[in-house]
């Protein structure tokens, strides 16, 4: 198992873990920076200060309980649906490729693509706001047209590693994908 | 990529092994070998002692019944200590008795998680070592689960061979082999198997009782339904006024819809495939919930004389609506919003509509002693379901606002007439004419008196336009309000009708039965030993469950797009915005 520290497109630090289970099975996990306590406290304090200000103006205590409610619900929704802690890619030579996203609340979202559907794994460029970024994606085979691509599945969408990290993952994946064609 | 047999890669052999057999005693592995995908699906383990002839006979019988190509795949040994010499020879002898290419030999030491596998091939085709992947699967869950492929896969399901989904084949194999799982360890047969049901077949008493009871109940229900439908289809109800009323009332449509549902459930034919079974179950649960909610509503309504209170407030509400309409008309007859109307036309239209309202109020007052009784009996029909109660509510609203509908029709017809007259006379004003034969505007030379009268009429109509337009606008807005309220009620009824509650509850409680795919987890590895993976079922998301299993309804959706609706409103055509499926286009 090897671990390396890289940077994401936004500038934050991310960690890449590589594991080789067998000759044709490898796993890559990218861990995003965790939820910071200071940003959480800053958000909570600002919401409550605003609510207290409204309370002073309107003298209605419902505002305060509504603010607490909103903070709790917002935090739960954020942890369960928005904040992704870790994204991993498991590639098994003759079975397929599996992508997992783990959220901060522990929920895991998994997608498995069979090897017969995978055409290739490539690094693509994209225009994102004012930048041009690189991202790794899986090209799916079009069943009707042997040379066509039916879908492009992007990987590591929320951690967005930079090119150096992507090249590592790309090289490893290509070694395994070559085995099925030789 | 199609893998030709002439180009050999590092051939990876995949063995799908049921996790319930991991603790089984030594024996033979039986299952299905899929050569295109180089994978073996193990279904059960046959224990020693056995007679090879009987094993072969049993396998051919099972193959005949299930249409699955079952055979002996290899041997399985679960020993306490290291390999014994005698066991090796014995296992080799077995491979000659049950010839299968390739012969898989799995060895496990007791209390150890690590397994070792060997493959014996008569004609080793590649000099490289074959790689081995062991995939554990939960046999019961895979057997009961139903794979929902995405659109990509359904298109490729037509292709045979390598393009077919590998996992689909595995799921298929296990679910078709139910006959194999009927023999348990305590049967006195010649074959002793280990699989997920080898401890004894499980069943639920309640389910069995329901199955036994459902046959007579279904027959009774079918008989009653045939009576009801024959009454409905009888000639008496087909005469013109009655059939017109039935088609307009949404209650009758809803009742007909529910009758259809009941017929589907109570039919004697067993469901052919999974989709039909889910549909039947969804209809059943939907009917049950509907009736439960309806009875709840009924119990709430009939308590504390609420029906009487409702009847008492109904007449004052109708009176109030009529009074509001009268005030509105008085306002229109005066100086509405600062606009100056044509006094004569205003008075005529205003008095015409006021007289109508007066008639309407008289009829309502005539019916007032019977309202409570009618409401009481109509409320009883809520026990047929909440949807029926909502449809009745929508019909009552339609009946109570019938005068608004009448006013709208009068206003719209008048306005429409005016607009057509204006457009035709405008053409005359410019010296053109509508050619009916060629469906286009042609120039035409008119006589002087034709032109004179035409221009006069045109001026009159033009100056009377604001008055008519204002009446039309006011009544159209009122009518649209009523239509929107009715539309919302119908949307709610549609929601209750089409929501597949059984599928949603199944997804909640037994999520492995609705599978979107699978997920793999890598188990503890040891160098030199084969790769071990655990295959688990990835359930469908709730959105896709609702989308896949939605019940078809007589959907009420807007007939026209916004632009055509606006055009119709401008010209004065009558609008009926909600279209029912199956209704002829007017």
From TrEMBL, chain A:
Quote the Pfam families the UniProt record gives.
PIG-H
User: Quick one: a GO cellular component term?
Assistant: glycosylphosphatidylinositol-N-acetylglucosaminyltransferase (GPI-GnT) complex
Q: Which InterPro entries match?
A: PIG-H, PIGH-H_dom
- The Phosphatidylinositol N-acetylglucosaminyltransferase subunit H conserved domain is annotated at 88-157
The pathway entry for this protein reads as: Glycolipid biosynthesis; glycosylphosphatidylinositol-anchor biosynthesis
Q: So which domain of life are we looking at?
A: Eukaryota
GO biological process, alphabetically ordered: GPI anchor biosynthetic process
Q: Which family does it belong to?
A: Belongs to the PIGH family.
Alphabetical list of PANTHER family matching this protein: PHOSPHATIDYLINOSITOL N-ACETYLGLUCOSAMINYLTRANSFERASE SUBUNIT H
The protein's name is: Phosphatidylinositol glycan anchor biosynthesis class H
TrEMBL record, chain B:
BP terms from Gene Ontology: GPI anchor biosynthetic process
Q: Extract the signal peptide range.
A: 1-22
Q: Which UniProt keywords apply?
A: Membrane, Signal, Transmembrane, Transmembrane helix
**Superkingdom per UniProt:** Eukaryota
Instruction: Respond yes or no to whether keyword Cell cycle is given for this record.
Output: no
Q: Which residues cross the membrane?
A: 283-302, 348-367, 374-401, 407-429, 450-474, 480-505
Enumerate the InterPro entries for this protein: PigQ/GPI1
Know the name of this protein? Phosphatidylinositol glycan anchor biosynthesis class Q
Organism (species) = Chelydra serpentina
- What gene name is listed for this protein? PIGQ
